[in-house]
Amino acid sequence: MTAVGKARPTGTTLITRTSRCSLATGGRLRGLSELQRKYGFDAAVAGHAAYGNLHFLLAFDAARPEEVARYAAFMEDFCTMTVERFDGSLKAEHATGRNMTPFLELEWGPAPPR
To answer: What is the mean pLDDT of residues 35-59?
Structure first.
């Protein structure tokens, strides 16, 4: 993370994301690579193969609305792909946080009535 953070353009925001899918679910890394190309992100990717965890880091300029929109569109596609195509979890080793909160219903379904 330190090496990627240091290499990113000055003034950009570094985001780290973790997801998990069954090892029997092939093509997830290829799917992430396709999304990176589609949205123009050059993300560093690592993982824990024995557990199906995939980590990636990407940088964008959060001060530019068009960059925030690009990141938001990437996350929408990434989360949909993880949950719907690969039946995965949007969190593997990290908490929900601000980045994943908008996708809780996608992952877990609507909240039960009170």
So the answer is: 84
